[in-house]
Amino acid sequence: MKLLVGGHCPPYRLSTRIVRENQASAQALRSNLVLEDLNVSGMIKNRKLSRAIGDAGWYSFRQMLEGKSIRYGRDFQVISRWEPTSQRCSACGQLGGKKPLNVREWTCLHCGAVHDRDINAAISSR
Question: Disulfide engineering: 19 pairs with which of 58, 68, 109, 118, CB 3.0-4.6 Å?
Answer without folding.
Answer: 68
